[in-house]
Amino acid sequence: MRVLIIDDQASLLDSMRFFLEQRKCKVYTALTGKEGLKTAFRERPSLVILDLKLPDMDGQIILKKLRNDMPATQVIIVTAFQDMENTINCIKLGAFDFIHKPIDINEIDSALNRFDKINRARTHQDPPQKQGVAAPSDGKTPYIVGKSQPMKEVFKKIAMVSDSKVTVLIQGESGTGKEVIARTIHYQGAWKNHPFMVVDCSTLVDTLTESQLFGYEKGAFTGADVTRKGTLELAGEGTIFFDEIGEMPLRLQSKLLRFLHEKEFIRVGGSKVLQSDARILAATNLDLAKMASNGRLRSDLFYRLRVVTIYVPPLRDRRSDISLLANYFLKKIGHKHQMPIKTITSGARQLLESYAWPGNVRELENSLIRAAVLTKSPVLTREDILNAISETGVDAVQEPSEKTLAEVEKEHILQVLKIKQGHLGKACRTLGISRPTLRKKLNQYGYK
Ligand SMILES: Nc1ncnc2c1ncn2[C@@H]1O[C@H](COP(=O)(O)OP(=O)(O)OP(=O)(O)O)[C@@H](O)[C@H]1O
């Protein structure tokens, strides 16, 4: 295989050359963008490894040129994790993969393995299609940190859907980052200057929801003294994100379905059919297929929603993201609380990487906030992290104890409630008990 590496760090070029030559690649190198393009057009490599930050040219311009003029050549971009917007733009522009800086040779190895595999499969296919062009960045996009293979797939899907109005269902456990993904789809997309509206289906009452969603006409019900627009109208050409879609009352499900089919709706108490061009994103941590089969969710709505599904794996299934996320959160905490950025010992890092994180990324972030705020020292130890986790976490890191079953049950219920930030509905789902049962138990513990 012929590989061209474009990077302004001579030492990195040397070590990559050494590594790639071991893999029997013919390697070309270039220290600048201009030199890189010249070499690419002369040598026609099958793969280019391209650093986005070059002294003379923007990496995205080089990528665009390579994808346009040499579509058979694939490009892996090298990026800093703070460059998430750029990374997504590069995927939109047709980058094959990305690896993070500082470069871990294992990441290159697995990217090359993927490239080999896909290249072999592609031999009999048509040349790759030209990809869409990215919208300019506006700085509002939230960061999504991740370098694990499942998160790379998530980034690719975000890039694929953000410039279209396709309905997307985001599935994953609580705290895995579903809302961040929804926001990123919106703010990376062509309609990012239009509103992003969130509807939390788990907190809405049936009748209230209807007027909130569809708006109402003056006089539609007692207290409706003026005509009001609902979320669908207010969103305009933007995005409506239905969080916890599995909680939507059945009656509203059919109205939402009509909206998804026809893009039409009527205000409560009105007769005029109104049009909306909003994009629908939905998220759930429930098994919607099961809900559809037992009648709790309309199956036609389920099929309509899952046109494109993004699955976000729990943090315990993508442990290679943990260290990166921890660094990111420690920086974020430092900036937010205006304190020096804390670091962690290798023991603490090992603990973070081995813990089960039942509350996923949210629990990791909250534990680090607690540890950073409560610890005076600039370096967080294993103990500091352990204390912070056991404040809210589930018992995954604790030693076996001699507690009674009732004590363990109480602790577990209170911990889950903390993780769910006091949200009874969410806690019930995690605990697998009904709301009345949870209330009864809380009463027994002395909580009203
Ligand atoms: N990959 C990620 N990179 C950076 N921050 C993340 C990532 N994933 C999650 N977070 C952060 O973790 C917290 C929880 O994320 P989010 O609210 O998106 O999860 P969720 O899956 O929608 O949760 P829920 O199902 O409980 O509503 C947020 O503060 C978010 O910013």
UniProtKB/TrEMBL annotation:
<dbReference type="Pfam" id="PF00072">
    <property type="entry name" value="Response_reg"/>
</dbReference>
<keyword id="KW-0597">Phosphoprotein</keyword>
<dbReference type="InterPro" id="IPR011006">
    <property type="entry name" value="CheY-like_superfamily"/>
</dbReference>
<dbReference type="GO" id="GO:0043565">
    <property type="term" value="F:sequence-specific DNA binding"/>
</dbReference>
<dbReference type="InterPro" id="IPR002078">
    <property type="entry name" value="Sigma_54_int"/>
</dbReference>
<keyword id="KW-0547">Nucleotide-binding</keyword>
<protein>
    <submittedName>
        <fullName>Two component, sigma54 specific, transcriptional regulator, Fis family</fullName>
    </submittedName>
</protein>
<dbReference type="Pfam" id="PF25601">
    <property type="entry name" value="AAA_lid_14"/>
</dbReference>
<dbReference type="Pfam" id="PF02954">
    <property type="entry name" value="HTH_8"/>
</dbReference>
<dbReference type="InterPro" id="IPR027417">
    <property type="entry name" value="P-loop_NTPase"/>
</dbReference>
<dbReference type="GO" id="GO:0000160">
    <property type="term" value="P:phosphorelay signal transduction system"/>
</dbReference>
<dbReference type="GO" id="GO:0005524">
    <property type="term" value="F:ATP binding"/>
</dbReference>
<keyword id="KW-0805">Transcription regulation</keyword>
<dbReference type="InterPro" id="IPR009057">
    <property type="entry name" value="Homeodomain-like_sf"/>
</dbReference>
<keyword id="KW-0804">Transcription</keyword>
<dbReference type="Pfam" id="PF00158">
    <property type="entry name" value="Sigma54_activat"/>
</dbReference>
<dbReference type="InterPro" id="IPR025944">
    <property type="entry name" value="Sigma_54_int_dom_CS"/>
</dbReference>
<dbReference type="InterPro" id="IPR058031">
    <property type="entry name" value="AAA_lid_NorR"/>
</dbReference>
<dbReference type="GO" id="GO:0006355">
    <property type="term" value="P:regulation of DNA-templated transcription"/>
</dbReference>
<feature type="domain" description="Response regulatory">
    <location>
        <begin position="2"/>
        <end position="116"/>
    </location>
</feature>
<dbReference type="InterPro" id="IPR025662">
    <property type="entry name" value="Sigma_54_int_dom_ATP-bd_1"/>
</dbReference>
<dbReference type="InterPro" id="IPR003593">
    <property type="entry name" value="AAA+_ATPase"/>
</dbReference>
<dbReference type="InterPro" id="IPR001789">
    <property type="entry name" value="Sig_transdc_resp-reg_receiver"/>
</dbReference>
<keyword id="KW-0067">ATP-binding</keyword>
<feature type="region of interest" description="Disordered">
    <location>
        <begin position="120"/>
        <end position="142"/>
    </location>
</feature>
<feature type="domain" description="Sigma-54 factor interaction">
    <location>
        <begin position="144"/>
        <end position="373"/>
    </location>
</feature>
<dbReference type="InterPro" id="IPR002197">
    <property type="entry name" value="HTH_Fis"/>
</dbReference>
<feature type="modified residue" description="4-aspartylphosphate">
    <location>
        <position position="51"/>
    </location>
</feature>
